[in-house]
Design a protein that fits this description.
mainly beta; Jelly Rolls; 2 domains; seven-stranded mixed beta sheet; 0% helix; 55% strand
Length: 239
């Protein structure tokens, strides 16, 4: 087992007034030579956007971009004509493919929106741009692991990569196992809230842990804990 630990207080941080953003990996004004990516996982941003503000229209290509609202609502528009609201318990994916332009704005004028934005390098380049979002019942991940992004699961949103995202809400004292889908993949665990021990490694709120050379994770919830698990191929060139 090999591990990389990213404690919450070691993440990159940028604040622009309307945006408060923490970066688990190099992004924008934050650069760390040892935090370029974890296999196909290129970006994990923990963003808070002020009421009525957001990211104006900007382009992307050849990236799988996943947005997971933690509270509040996001207003998504893009060059394919999409005009959607993404809410807590929704998961959105945008396969930028051959090229797409989009904006992500706080849909509310009276409260901030908090969300995780995750970028994964694609399996196939230059596919037609693609968008999908689904709602997931919070009760379906209480004391169990719920797959929300996958290349092979019709109940999840589809991703152009051999990658799986899962969410779980564990009560204190609960234990669970996560078997990897593909040999050679790694898993990046992000603690959304709470405290957990993963394969013997203690993690706290907003900590990240990358694990490779394993067949499964063993998760012990030390408190009520919400987790995001991102399983990705590891044999990727550095971005």
């Amino acid at each position: 087992m090999k591990t990389i630990i990213h404690k919450a207080d070691t993440r990159g941080h940028n604040s622009f007034g309307w945006l408060n953003s923490y970066h688990s990996f190099s992004f924008g004004h934050y650069y760390h030579p040892e935090r370029l990516q974890f296999g196909a996982l290129r970006v994990l941003n923990d963003d808070t956007v002020a009421p009525g503000m957001g990211f104006g229209k900007h382009p992307h290509d050849n990236m799988e971009i996943v947005s997971i609202p933690l509270s509040g609502d996001l207003h998504h528009q893009d060059s394919t004509g999409r005009n959607e609201i993404i809410r807590q318990h929704d998961v959105q994916i945008m396969s930028a493919g051959s090229g797409i332009a989009h904006s992500e704005m706080n849909a509310n004028k009276d409260q901030p929106v908090k969300f995780l934005q995750v970028w994964v390098l694609p399996k196939e380049a230059n596919i037609p741009p693609r968008y999908e979002q689904k709602s997931f019942k919070p009760e379906d991940r209480v004391n169990q692991i719920l797959t929300v992004v996958a290349p092979d699961d019709a109940n999840a949103v589809w991703i152009n990569q051999d990658a799986w995202f899962s969410l779980a809400n564990f009560e204190a004292g609960q234990q669970a196992n996560y078997p990897l889908h593909l040999s050679g993949n790694g898993v990046y665990v992000f603690v959304i809230s709470g405290e957990a021990t993963i394969n013997g490694i203690a993690l706290q709120n907003r900590d990240g842990l990358g694990i490779t050379d394993i067949d499964q994770l063993t998760i012990d919830a030390n408190t009520n804990t919400e987790l995001l698990l991102i399983e990705v191929p590891m044999n990727m060139n550095e971005a």
